[in-house]
Amino acid sequence: MAYALPYEGVNIEVFYDRIEIMPPDLQATLLAHVLVHEITHILQGVSRHSDNGVMKARWDASDRAGMVRIPLAFEPQDVVLIHEGLKARAARQGQGTLLARDNAQTLPIAQ
User: What are phi and psi of 69, to 5 degrees?
Assistant: First the structure.
């Protein structure tokens, strides 16, 4: 339904047509979860998935039904990786650069 470029650090693409084919009462909740999932990849700086929760690679019918009632949660390791990713991003910003890992370039940060 979407993808992020966690090593590049800023781009997310959502395939909204895949969300629109879902039942109308699920669409807003599903879009919110997709955005949280992809933003988390950017924050973590890695392309990793959990076995359960919002960072699961593919949500099944049970996950989708559950997210309407209660938002999917982060696994403990997801939270650890968010903190680690934010620390790494802050360290790169402190050096005045962000590393674009997908093409091994160092990009200057606009001031």
Answer: -85, -45
Structure tokens at 61: 């019918």
**Contact by Cβ (8 Å): 18, 109:** no
Decide: residue 89, CB within 10 A, 0-12 exposed, 13-18 middle, 19+ buried. middle
- Give this prediction's pTM: 0.79
Q: Which residues contact 50 (CB under 8 A, 6 or more apart)?
A: 56, 74, 75, 77, 78
Rounded Cα gap, residues 10 and 102, in angstroms:
12
The span from the CA of 5 to the CA of 100, in Å, is 10
CA dihedral 31, 50, 13, 25 (to 10 degrees): -10
Task: Encode pLDDT of 3-53 as tens digits.
Answer: 776 667 778 889 999 999 999 999 999 999 999 999 999 999 999 999 999
